[in-house]
User: Fold this.
Amino acid sequence: MRGASASEIAAQLQTVYGHAYRRAELLEDIRSYRVVTTKTAASVAIATALTTYRDMRGLVARIGVAAFSISLLLPTIAHGGATSTVMLAGTMDDHVVAQVERIALPNARERTRLATPAPTPDPTPEPTPVATPAPPPAPASAAMPNGVSGVVVTASWYGPGFYDNRLPCWQWLQANGLPIQFEADTWGVANKTLPCGTMLTLSHGSNVITVPVVDRGPYVAGRELDLSLRVKTALGCTDLCTVVMHIGQ
Assistant:
């Protein structure tokens, strides 16, 4: 009913819906229709502008690529040169397509690849010979006054500062009903490697005794045994003495 008057539109509505349509309501509906139509037209205009912008942007990009390609080709046409490979990017349908073209660049020359001489390897240094340490001299053998043969070892003694300490061989001592603390009257010696309870026959001069290993030491180079005060007195040793030792079974 485009172009009809308000009275004609109201009469038509009354005929269709069976009741009177007031003029005020009719005008309100017409205004609402016009607002919606205006908004729709504005949306269409914005969409059209965006599409035009994208088309223009693609066109400008294609023009720029073409101008760049021409700027590269002009010096080549004028001067000539070697052929090189150039990567060009073009825009087509909003997608970036990589185009590889063979373009003659000006003043380009083929470079002769020179072979780089292999570096001279450094001479391998001669390994420094490692001096083999001389084996320690075998302990001297000697016979005890009772005729038993043994080896000559150096013995020291220890006591003050160690009394009342539990001996490392306390389990063997406890199993044999002996005190497990080190005292001045402890009957035993210290050795670094012999098992606890190993019986040693020792002689110094005319004195010969048999004692067990009950401790660990001495940790001084060249010494094999550390004697308790009681053992030192029984052998008649000084602070450092030489004894003949025989390891029992």
Remarks:
- Residues 82-106 have pLDDT under 50 and may be disordered.
- The longest strand covers residues 83-92.
- Residues 123 and 129 are 18 Å apart (CA to CA).
- The radius of gyration is 57 Å.
